[in-house]
Write a structure and sequence with these properties.
By secondary structure, the chain is of the alpha+beta class. The protein contains 40 helices and 51 strands. It has an 11-stranded mixed sheet with strand order 21-37-36-35-34-31-28-30-26-27-29, sandwiched between helices. The protein is globular. The termini are far apart. Pfam families: HET (PF06985), PK_Tyr_Ser-Thr (PF07714). It comes from Endocarpon pusillum. This is Protein kinase domain-containing protein.
Amino acid sequence: MDHGNDSSSDVPADILVESITQALSGNKIGLRNLWGQRNYFPDRDRTKLITKDAIRKALPSATTNLVDYIHNYASKTFSMVLMAIEGRKPRLEAMQAFYFHGLRDSEHLPVPNIAAKDCCEHSWQKSDREKCHSKCTASLRGTCKHLQVYNCFHHSCWDITRFYKFWFHQPSFVMQHFNTKVFQHHNISDDRVLPFLPREGMEPIAGGFGKVYPAKMLVDYLIDREGLIDVHSTEEINIAIKVLKPDEQGRYNLEEEWERESNAHKDLNGLDTHLIKAFAAFRYRGDFCLLLEWADGGSLQSLLKQELRPFLTKEAILELLDQLVGLANAMHLMHNKDFLHPVRANSFESFRSQTGDDRSVDAVSESRADQSVVPVIPQAITVTSEGSDVGLVPKISIEPPKDLTDSDGRPEKSFENWRHGDIKPANILRFKGKDVHGKDLWLGTLKLADLGRAKQRNGITRYQTKQEVDNWRSEAHEAPDIHVNPHASMSRLYDSWSMGTVIFNLIVWMLYGKQQLHNFTHTTDRYGGEGSPYWTRRYRTSAEVSAMAKLWMSHILREDIECNRPEGTVMGDLMKLVRDELLVIDLPPLDSRDIHKAEKGQRSNAARLCDRLKEIRERAHKDEEYLFTGNDRSGMQPPPSGDAAVAEITVMRLETVADQKVSGLLSPNAAEDRALNTRQRNTYTHGLEDKWLYEDDNHFARSIMELDEVTKAELAPDDDESDFCKTCQSFKAMSLKFFTRSVPDLDRSCPLCQMLKGCVERLGLDLGEPLVLDRSGGSYITPKTGRAVLRVCREPQPSYPSHFGTEGIPVGLPLLSHAGDSAHVAILKAWLRDCDNSDQHKRCRLSKSVFVPKRLLQVEKNSRWSKVIETASHLSDKSVDYLALSHPWGKASSTNVHFKSDKDNIKKRMTRIRDAELPLTFRDAVEMARKLEVQYIWIDSICILQKTDTDPGDFQEEAKSMESIYASAYCVISASSAEGMNSGFWSDERLKGTAIQLPQAGKGDLPATYLCDTIDDFQGDVLDGPLNERGWALQERALARRTIFFTKTQTYWECGQGIRCETLSKLTNQKVKFIGDSNFPSYANSPEGRGRGAQEFLFEELYADYSRLKFSLLTDKPIAISGLEQRLTRAIRTPSGAGIFIKFWGRCLLWKRNDPEVTELVRISSGTIGSKVRMPPSWSWMAYEGGISYLQPPKGRTVWNEKAIRLRLTGSGEISWLFAKDELGFSAPIKSFKEGENTADGDYQLTYDNPNESKSKQKKCVIIGSVQDVGHAEKGIHYVLVVSPVATKGSSNTWERIGAGKLHGRFIQDVNAVSVSAEIV
């Protein structure tokens, strides 16, 4: 299509375009591990390139006024026109149109997609376009929904292709600005580019509600009107980007959590130097984000975990005092914000936008200065009564009596305050600094951070009558207030307790170091009752300071020479402050706790804490011996821990726990002693994101492509450039990050057009809809669906000029070789070799294994036969490399005969098995073992003797070793696309992919670049493949240290370092990595996974997925996961059995039929299983055919019925419950309940395992856990198992499970009464 181009004489413009292209290619922006990176055009380069002289040369016919307009107001727009339009004349017409309509960079960029449906009435067809100076029809009608200024695109020089080129270039030219005065809440458009760069070598930090990404921000794009950020003169500053993550179980609303935290920052920003500063909150690409100042010293928690601590010196103690005073003052200011800083309450002005929001004059002028700044949202609505609209921040509004005044004589009804709600070492950040002499401070500046649990209040605590619930606090450092009184509201004194635990941690660490601080928490973990390391529950409605905390405070004050000086010391008085005023259970009366000092024996508020710390600091400056005694601490003994501590605590409840060992019996007595430690429940979130990402693997890919076998295979097309149409001949993937093509313009004879046409067909685009593709690394993605539709890769060629931008295109193979040929095998060997030798893969390797299976298939090299050997008699070396095959048996048929060893044929097979006798899948496996030069392979149906009519075989015995068989294999090979023994490893589909060599590449210094079909799909080829529908495959993949997956499209490699594709791409996915981990389940004991919630998520996801899989023999269901269960048992360090872990016993028992997907659960018959292996009981999901899911009792608020239930689990890390000496046991009180229909309000929600059979059965229930008012079980919700009597058992009091759910107390008869226990089988 010709638009009157006169490109032959447009050399100056072409030079300018090439300069812009080079600037784009040489500048990357964005976070690779978050939103990806793309090229951008920096303002400094634009200023340098788009000069008046350059404009005149590019547009010789431009008037002086037009040149001045472009230079002063539209240089970004001009740059994009140069990239989008070819030819001097149409470029000039475009800029004249912009000038005529008054379009300016600062006011009208970015341009919206006015070509979208129902936005613009203008026809984009050439025959119907008129020059805008003559007023086109659409402009005259005035019916377009976009701003009138965008009528400039009605000009005849614009067609749909040019507009989309202009529109898709915008993100690289129009960077997002941030203004600290306008604290953003609105969404940022997904196509905007954010001015962030990664901090190399720094990984994201996972937290309870999200991740914090270390990043750098370009200062050019920060408008800091508030002076919050110390920019100095640098081009970039270090920042932290906090990205909140959703809760997959729906336990909190992500947007509400973001609004809560962002509004807290908005209101508290700049209030005090010891409060973290934030300068933006925004939503981008579905993520809810906060921009925060970067703490270069990490968190206080990370400091406390360091081995080195400061020597006790005067300087160190004074610095500690300064920071404690600062933290306490920051907390005091939060608690009394409007009293102390009435002006700060409205420091961020609100304004009225075009839709009617309040807008200040300053905000209007600034928004006009740069329209790319995100507008502010209206301020939060105050919620004052039930049923009101929820505001942006949870507020509790109170109306005290009008005549009530505060201590300054002001009406108390104007008293607004904030409570932090989650003060702990992890939420106190360190900012490095120097003293007046230029010496590094050991502690730096400490700041309260993470305002995610902060709550705002109107009024004072004594007038709050509603119960306040926060299920997401970090419970290790929380106060006992609402635990012992669920009706209580969390006052600001909650923060006082938490600050007391922080000061306690600092004192212990400074006096004794990291190990003793660990000993304190470890002892409370091991021996503590229900509560935290600092308090324990007494009965249901009271608490006391924990015996361990009392012991340590008493010991330090009595025995430590830095604390027991009669005249007092700083460290001693700090500990007394903690003991006497902070870690105190009793609270002041409601009418005095906010503005008056507490009486002796009551917890102090922030004002009192500030005063006491300042008193200590003032005395320290006057009395050097009070500041620091200087005594020799070389013989100082720390407080006792472990058993020694328990021996000293003789009057506390911990005395019954001293000899209590980890046991599988949860009895009434043991239940109280082993009540779930609240500290172990400090988080209910996890870091397992289900998101596929590409990783840079160019170094390894280059080494593959340099192999002789791969080079000789010639796995690349060689297209003649003359075959391409004129448009495609100019295609440059290296510099073209995105492009559009009109579907009718695709040339049938052009190979690139035909590849694009295939994309159009797969996407189902209309004829008039342009094909729009955006390149991200090695993939071209359509913004319409977010799907990768094409792959781009290149040859390794280190000599190409860097400005061509090929660093974004990965090295890779455009075509695959024939399965099993030398090039294919060379890639597989390279995977193994890299994993064997690379330091990055140390966790994937084991030292020579001492375990070998009972039998192996010995593969004879350079032959067509193999044989079964018994390893005990045939192998002198008990540590050999062997492969293990993961495959489906499939349903036995004439075309899928099961090839099995048994007592009758094993002797013959120990002599010879010809390859021709083997089914195709086994034949391919044996041949692959030969090619990989591994002499032995383990195949289950050949190496385990199967059952016959006259012989039981040895499956039951070998099943005990299944974990070791796969874990000890040199590598597992998986027939992922096979559906039976005769399917084979691969198909002809792997050769159907197409690829073309792009024009303008492979010449001179440029590496050859290829466009290919996208075939990297581990999710579809492996995880959703036929083999993964089989129950045994889950365990085989999880237990393997590394696996090679043979699929119908290509071959994949998986180990602890991620997933590699035969195309040489590398993939990663955190959630998928959990099962693919070479040391499964290491995540359960990682920093992200140690929390109780993360471990609960792991077993619930694992078991729910496993329950849906298929089995040739249903009785294999408990056996095929026994190896994983043992691994989890060792990792979590808790007894187990039949899918139940004693640590999570309540939640484990509360599984249900996955309704409505599964209409009934069918009990698996035990008739076909031998006597050596137990079948699971009715209360285990392993006893049924069909998928399950788990009930979700509220985290942190469910009281488990531990005292009434006896549960014996016999599995351990050494032996499965299937083979243990003792049987599983479960007894519990049963109660009658009123039968009825499920109710919409959730008060009556029961799911029966088999609904039809359950109708006629007698039913009672077992209460597993309850969410209730203290002492009023009839008013609470109870999570129950439904049971029915078993007629075949001798005892009349034997029952079996038939369902599960929840019941309100009013449906349960005599819910408070003591009931007779029954055995549940």
